[in-house]
Structure formats: structure tokens, C-alpha cells
Amino acid sequence: MEIGTMLRNKRKMLGLTQDQFIHGIISKSFYSKVERGLNEISAEDLFAILEVNNINLNDFLKNADSSSPSNRLKVVIVVAFNKKDKHKVQELNKKIQISNCDQTIKLSSLLINATLNNELDKINIDTRNEIKRKLFDVEKWWNNVYMLQLFCNSMLIFSFDDLSFYMKQLAKQRDISTMSFDTQRLIGSICINYFHNCYKNHQTAHAKWGYQIIDNLAKLPDLTIYRIIKNYYQALFTGNLKKANEVIDFFKDYDLKEIYTVLP
């Protein structure tokens, strides 16, 4: 049974409308497509919806068809990745690679495992080319959570020219602010990774694509962090070190070590 169908069944069992069920966690239009199997819900949003409706995650996942492990595995590996559980991710990746999950999920799992274990350099050229093909083959990949996650996890294995090509495609999208929150957050993370690549490759002029994309994100408090980091890189790349240091001081004042310690 697909995740969307399972959510719809739970919602109806509780006698709730879609609005009542999602509690504003994601948009109704996006969630409606999740139930119909047209959109993929992120692990974080799934957990949030289950939690707010007092639905036990393990009980929920028990309803997944064991002959189609992708429903369970693709959620659990993201959880393990967010917890930085290297051993769990390695185990799940092995299961996914020999399962009947589709190739996109297998590639994403491989990348998650390689990213967490600092083994991106071990991904062979054939796999790298397959990742590129997957990004090209999916219609409107920039509005697909799994494709965005795949891209975000794999940016280190692309050449700078490849990255710039994808960022230009993203920058052409005028409806970014209407996309789901999780999609916009992934796009913001992609931009931050891109800025780092611009810095590393001494291609700061190309950062304009990332600036444009972040400026098109919805004006939501939870997305403000991407604008602040954008301002840091913009100041750094234009030689305004005073402003760049002010941003660093801001992060230090709020003890955001996970941010300021990785900025150049």
C-alpha cells in the first residue's frame, strides 16, 4: 500500500478533512496530490502529520506492503541520515540496493550513505552519469522532493559547469514561493551548497543564480536562514568583509555553531 493511500485511510478513520488532518504542516493542494500518489511527501512532514494526529509511526508503517519495501525504507533511511546514524544508514542502504525499490530511491540511498560516510569520491563514473540522467529524465525535477534531495546530496560529484547548468534551470522557475515548504527548504540548501562550490572554484560571479533563487523563496520565518547565509556569501564575494563578519557575529551571538563553523 502506498504512503498516500495509507494517509488517506488514516484520515478517513479519524473522520477528518484534509485541512484538519494536515494542520497547516503542508499546503492542502500539495497534500491532496500526496493522497492521490502524484506527490511524494518528505519524511519530516510525514512524521509531523502523524505526530499531530497522535498516530504511532511503527503502527503506521506496519500497514505498508512488505512486497514493496520502498514505502518503509525510503522513510527510515532519511530518519537515520538526519540522526547521523552511520551504521543504520549503511544497513538500510544494503537492503535498499537489493530490494525492488525503483532506481531513483536506490541512487538516493547510495548518495545518502556516501555523504554521511565521506565516501562520495568512491562513487564510480557510471553511477555519476546515471544520477545526471535521472535528473534530466524527470519532468520538472525542481518540483520533485526526491529529485531535489538527490541533487542536494550529490552536488560534490558534479563539475562546476554541471552545477551551474542546474542552478540556471532552477533560477528560471517563477513559482518557487508557491511550492511546498519542504521543497523550498531543499532548494535553499542546494543554493547554500552551490555558494560553497562557487567559493571553492573561485567562480563567485556565478553565485548570482543562487541569489536569484533564494530571493524567490516565500517570505516565511523558517526560510529566513537561507537569506541570511545568502547575504553572508554576497558580502564575502563582493569584498564587503565588514558585513560578512557581522553575519558571522550574529550566528555566534545565537550559538549557531553548526552554521558559522562551516562558512568560509
Molecular structure report:
It is a single chain. The radius of gyration is 19 Å and the shape is globular. Helix 6 runs antiparallel to helix 7, helix 11 (160-171) runs parallel beside helix 13 and helix 12 runs antiparallel to helix 13 (208-215). It has helices at 3-14, 18-22, 28-35, 43-52, 57-61, 70-82, 86-97, 103-116, 125-137, 145-154, 160-171, 181-200, 208-215, 224-237, 241-253, 257-260. The protein is mainly alpha-helical and 264 residues long.
Rg for CA atoms: 19 Å
Provide the structure class.
Answer: mainly alpha
**Count the strands?**
0
Number of H- or I-type helical stretches? 16
Low-confidence stretches: none
| Bulk shape | globular
Helix coverage percent:
55-70%
Secondary structure elements and pairings:
Blueprint: H1 3-14, H2 18-22, H3 28-35, H4 43-52, H5 57-61, H6 70-82, H7 86-97, H8 103-116, H9 125-137, H10 145-154, H11 160-171, H12 181-200, H13 208-215, H14 224-237, H15 241-253, H16 257-260
Helix pairs in contact: 6-7, 6-8, 7-8, 8-10, 10-12, 11-12, 11-13, 12-13, 12-14, 13-14, 14-15
